[in-house]
Amino acid sequence: MSPLDGRPVVTAAQMRAAEQLAIERGSSVAALMDHVGRAVAEVVRRIGGGGDVLVLCGSGNNGGDGYVAAAALKAAGIAVRVAASSPPRGEAAIAARAGWDGAVETLADAAPASVLVDALFGTGLNRALDDAVAAPLRRLVEGARLSVAVDVPSGVQADTGEVLGPVPAMAVTLALGAAKPAHLLQPAARLCGTVRVLDIGVTVDSDARVIARPTWTRPGPDSHKFNRGMVAVVRGRMAGAAHLAATAAMHAGAGYVVLLGASMPEAPYALVRKPLTDDALDDPRIGAVVIGPGLGRDEGMREPLDQALASDRPLVIDGDALRLLTPERIAARGGTTILTPHAGEFDALFGAGDGSKLDRARDAATRSGAVVVFKGPDTVIAAPDGRAILAGDANDWLSTAGTGDVLTGAIGAALSSGMPALDAAAAGVWLHGEAARRLGAAFIADELAVALKHARGML
């Protein structure tokens, strides 16, 4: 059982393909089911505190996993019962049911237990649960001290994170073989509780992964302000937003931050202030240019945006600047570009579209030729080559003005240090999330920008 950090994220189809490959190489559905069920049982035995267990089994392979788990728990001396929504289907699930030598209760009649294991539906579900299943599932989860979902909570769509109907929140979800998008995408992620990956004896590979603590080089004896990273922040109509981004870049570890445009006097003395002249972005020492926070959407702001786009420096574009651009213009720029839209900015730039947040972010990255940080309570970072990084449940207190500007500054600092764009975006997102976690509640963006230094100290 492993944490999600850095692990592959696979769709239901990718997981089925991996299982099929394992079967072609000599395994079998029954062998995989036995492996999964025993692994689930071992986790439940360890975290269940010796309490009695109720395993809910569906008709498919997820239910088969549940029957195997129940038998293994019983063999380990745990008091365990089974309730089923319907008889098993498929040879392996039927055989697993035959391996359970106890009674099988109906969901409607089952009494709660200390520990509830949800093995009703797995990653293949694409419809809301019937009332005959949803109501007793909620009752039994609410009556348990600990609730554990096998792979995904029954009633969520594994690939999109959509909640298909009323679904009770689980305390723990055991992801089989790899993380699924629903473990990280809202609203399903909030219902998964603590997610851990179970090794099921299947090799999985994916171009999507869960965000992990970044590798970000610390200063050494040969470090100086320019080789630690120089960030140029372009100020717009709302000076405070640009100041937040600049302050964040400094506290995220950039060695030199310059604010281009008129400045407010209360800015830190360490922040260099210069006018935005025609050659301001020509300095080859600039490792990243940040534009967009508080820029303004009027025509007068197109000139500094045009100047930033014409620069050959790596570019981070946020906020108002995203509403003055098209994907085609960004793609025509070439070079390194990172976009950091929230949902409204994303829709304005790329259109509302269909599909999951992961699908839409990947499509946006392909169209724009940029790394796209589709931020929110969940964040998807996508590169034009199809790679993606998912960051799950964010601190809800981030829903306050200016925190997006702080994220942009953190990403600018990472990019200025020489990281590849996808890695820099992920490093900024991780640092931003860790700083928010450390602050806890009711913080403001100014405090978040300063707290980046404490998160940076962990790396």
From TrEMBL:
Positions that bind AMP: 375-379, 404
Entries under InterPro entries matching the protein: Carbohydrate_kinase_pred_CS (IPR017953), CARKD (IPR000631), Nnr (IPR030677), Ribokinase-like (IPR029056), YjeF_N_dom (IPR004443), YjeF_N_dom_sf (IPR036652)
Residues holding (6S)-NADPHX: 61-65, 122-128, 151, 241, 294, 342, 405
Entry binding sites for K(+): 62, 118, 154
Catalytic activity: (6S)-NADHX + ADP = AMP + phosphate + NADH + H(+); (6R)-NADHX = (6S)-NADHX; (6S)-NADPHX + ADP = AMP + phosphate + NADPH + H(+); (6R)-NADPHX = (6S)-NADPHX
Gene Ontology MF annotations: ADP-dependent NAD(P)H-hydrate dehydratase activity; ATP binding; kinase activity; metal ion binding; NAD(P)HX epimerase activity
Keyword set, alphabetical order: ATP-binding, Isomerase, Kinase, Lyase, Metal-binding, Multifunctional enzyme, NAD, NADP, Nucleotide-binding, Potassium, Transferase
UniProt keyword annotation of Membrane present: no
Annotated ranges, domain YjeF C-terminal: 208-459
Pfam families: Carb_kinase, YjeF_N
Cofactor(s) demanded: Mg(2+); K(+)
GO annotation (BP), single: nicotinamide nucleotide metabolic process
Domain YjeF N-terminal: 15-208
SUPFAM superfamilies: Ribokinase-like (SSF53613), YjeF N-terminal domain-like (SSF64153)
Quaternary structure note: Homotetramer.
Record-linked PANTHER family: ATP-DEPENDENT (S)-NAD(P)H-HYDRATE DEHYDRATASE, ATP-DEPENDENT (S)-NAD(P)H-HYDRATE DEHYDRATASE FAMILY MEMBER
Family, similarity comment: In the N-terminal section; belongs to the NnrE/AIBP family. In the C-terminal section; belongs to the NnrD/CARKD family.
Function statement: Catalyzes the epimerization of the S- and R-forms of NAD(P)HX, a damaged form of NAD(P)H that is a result of enzymatic or heat-dependent hydration. This is a prerequisite for the S-specific NAD(P)H-hydrate dehydratase to allow the repair of both epimers of NAD(P)HX.
Protein name: Bifunctional NAD(P)H-hydrate repair enzyme
